[in-house]
Every structure is written in C-alpha cells, then in structure tokens.
Design goal:
The protein has about 425 residues and is α+β, with helices and mostly antiparallel strands. It is built from eleven helices and 20 strands.
Length: about 425
C-alpha cells in the first residue's frame, strides 16, 4: 500500500516586533486522492434510542427505524456492522451475539427486519450504550471504526460521572456522530460525546428528517479512507505551545488531547480522512523573545499516521517561522487567515455564553454576547450562523451588533443555534 497523499499550507505573519513572543499560524491540511483501504478494515455501529419517550409522538420511533434502515442500506459490502438498541440498558439488535457481521445483501436485509421490530420502552443510560459499542467494536480489528448515535432525551438513568467514564473508554477506539431528535435532549451532554469521539452533533427537530441525515452520515463514513491521522507539533526548547485548535469546518479545541511523542513534540488527533477533505488548524506558540534581525523555527507541523508495519508515516510537513524586525508596518500586520479564524472561534464562544446567560435570565449578558455574535457573523460572512441568530434575537444593526432579545423563541431554533455554533466558514479567497 502506497503512502496517502496530503498537503500542508502555513498562513502566518512571521514578523514580530523587537522582543515579541507570540507566534500564530493557520495550518491548512488537505487530503488528495488517498489510497483506499479494503472493505473489511471498516466497521460501523448504529445506536438507536429506544426509551419510552421515543413513542411520543409515535413518528419518532417509526422514523428512527426508517433512518436506521437507510443507514444500513448505505453500508458497503464487506464492512463489519451492528445495531444497538439503547434504553436504561443496551442490547445488540443485530447481530444478537454481541459481535459484528460483514455487510451483504442478506445481512443488510436481516438487520432491517430486526430493526423493524424495535419498540420503545424504558429509560436512558447513554454511557451503557457507548460501553456496549466499545465492547462490540473491539471484537473486530477494523482500522476505521465509526458509530451513529441517536437520542431524544437526557441521560437520566446514570450519573454524569458514569457517562464521562464511558466516553473516556471509547476515546481513540471509534468516532461517533451524534444526533438529537426533538427538543428534550441536552446539547452540552451530547456535544461532550461528539467532541471527545471526533464526531459531529446536530439537531433533527422533525423526525421526518432523520432518514436523509442518517444516509448522509453513513455515506460520509463510507468515504473515509485513512484512519487515525494526527497533527504532530514540535516546538524548540524554551517555547510554550499555547493551543492547537481545529477551526474549520468546525471549532474544536485539541489542546488538552496532546499525546507526547518526545520532550518537545506531541500529537493531536484529527480522526479519519476521506479524499479531497480540507481542514484548518490554529497553532499558537510563545517563543523566547528575540532581537531585531534574528529568526528562528517556532514550530514544525507534521501530519502523521501509523503505517501497516507499525512505524509512523509522515504524510506532510510545514514550518512556522519567527523573524524579529523594527519595521512596524511588517510586525503589526495581522495575517488574514489568523484574524478570520480568531473571530470564528470567538463567535462559537459568545453564542454559547449568550444562550447560557439567556437560560439563567441574565438578559444584559445575553444581549451583549449574542450582539457580539451577530457582529462577528456579519464581519466573517457566516450567513448560516447569522440566520440562526436572527431566530433568537431581533437584529437592529448587524455591523455594530445592536440586538434585542426575542421575547419568545422556539426551543428547536435555540438548540439549532447552540449545536451549530461551532460551524465555521472558510476564509474568503
């Protein structure tokens, strides 16, 4: 198998004033025509909430069954798969033995028949669902492991600590895209799962939208070809790595997920990649202050993955530089990519802060934070987020962020803004 094709571009203003220490860069990683893996190296599990609340309205469980069938139809021949039903316990629906089975016309048909028999009843213990998925995934040696998790309610039948322990158990074992149907689930709770397991989170307000969403998620998973790619960041002695964040297509702070690979290097997980994907990362380094005319390597960014023989493949590399100058025009120039994504990260933060303040009844803070969000969305051209904000606030002046809180906001609109607050737009070319 040949090495997958990736490219790395670095966008930064490498010039610092005399004594300056902060170096910021946007790292754009793009996959090319990567080498396809064999079908048997992928595994999928669909986890469906079958708690009692899925019967109200009845369309929830019927549309969940239809969505699961649509996802099953999208699984390629040879890919190992399974379906789990989640209540206050977890049970394998298909196959029933607690392992995975290779997809074929026959097994897909058998799985859909088993799913058609699902009936709602019981409570919600999402940690147990994840633990069973972990147990089932680890019966299979697939390199690419991915789950879809659907819920309609809060994790009421286990403690937050139990859920956190289950998430930690699954971290690095499989990725998980999470969906909440209706408006009775907790965004922050489900986001904890999707963030830790390198997946997505979104709301499906109307159960009728589930089938198309499930089919799209599975199609995306089937397109992944390279597993467990990491961003390796090396910094020189006496430098401090301030943070590493994914900033496109969504904001995700990876700083706390570093795995040390040496005294001055660490790996940050990026998950699985398909052909033609592009993602942006913000790397910030504090270096020792230099004098005018000095220059140094502030960071070396590599994209790495495990090779079949157990060694590490370097898939691409870029350099972050620092040069000290007394030319104020050079040292004060803010790189457009860095400025854009700094604003996008702030946009996600102020939306979440504003919605939290609104829940607490702190209208002044909510108005201030959501007003700032409107201004940032306007400045960056983030039209999708601007439309979501307009359902929660009345916009008086978008440029200045002057807004009024709406007196009545639909729960689905508020949750959609929350779940999609981390979605970003790329820099304008």
């Amino acid at each position: 198998m040949s090495q997958p094709d990736f490219s790395i571009e670095i966008f930064q203003n490498e010039y610092l004033p005399d004594g300056g220490q902060d170096v910021n860069a946007i790292v754009t990683v793009t996959s090319g025509d990567t080498v396809a893996v064999s079908d048997t190296s992928a595994a999928e599990i669909i986890i469906i909430d079958c708690s009692g609340s899925m019967s109200s309205p009845q369309t929830k469980i019927s549309e969940a069954r239809a969505a699961t069938a649509a996802a099953i139809d999208a699984i390629r021949d040879g890919v190992a798969f399974a379906v789990i039903a989640g209540t206050n316990d977890a049970r394998p629906v298909f196959p029933t033995g607690g392992s995975l089975v290779a997809a074929s016309e026959q097994t897909r048909d058998d799985a859909k028949k088993a799913v058609a028999r699902l009936r709602p009843g019981g409570g919600t213990a999402i940690g147990k669902w994840l633990r069973l998925a972990h147990q089932m995934f680890t019966t299979n040696e697939a390199a690419l492991r991915h789950a879809i998790l659907l819920t309609d309610g809060k994790n009421q039948h286990e403690t937050p600590a139990q859920l956190d322990q289950a998430i930690a158990l699954c971290e690095g074992v499989f990725s998980c895209d999470c969906r909440g149907v209706g408006t009775d689930w907790e965004v922050s709770e489900i986001r904890r799962i999707s963030t830790a397991l390198l997946g997505t989170v979104d709301i499906v307000p109307d159960p009728s939208g589930l089938a198309a969403d499930f089919a799209a998620m599975m199609a995306s998973a089937m397109g992944k070809q390279v597993a467990d790619v990491a961003l390796r960041v090396w910094t020189p002695q006496h430098a401090t790595l301030r943070f590493v964040k994914q900033v496109a297509p969504t904001v995700d702070d990876l700083t706390g997920r570093r795995t040390s690979t040496g005294a001055q290097a660490g790996d940050y997980p990026t998950g699985a990649w398909g052909p033609g994907e592009s993602r942006d990362y913000h790397v910030s380094v504090q270096v020792s202050a230099g004098g005018v005319g000095q220059e140094m390597l502030a960071a070396r960014i590599s994209l790495v993955a495990a090779a079949p023989d157990g060694t590490t493949q370097v898939l691409g590399q870029g350099l972050v530089l620092a040069r000290w100058t007394d030319d104020e025009a050079l040292s004060t120039r803010i790189n457009g990519h860095v400025a854009h994504y700094t604003g996008q990260a702030e946009l996600a933060q102020v939306i979440q802060e504003g919605l939290e303040a609104r829940k607490r009844g702190d209208e002044d803070t909510a108005t201030s934070r959501l007003g700032r969000a409107v201004a940032l969305a306007e400045q960056s051209g983030n039209e999708g987020t601007a439309k979501l904000l307009a359902k929660v606030v009345d916009v008086v002046d978008a440029a200045t962020g002057t807004v009024r809180l709406k007196k009545k906001v639909d729960d689905a609109d508020e949750m959609a803004l929350d779940t999609r607050s981390t979605k970003t737009v790329r820099t304008r070319k």
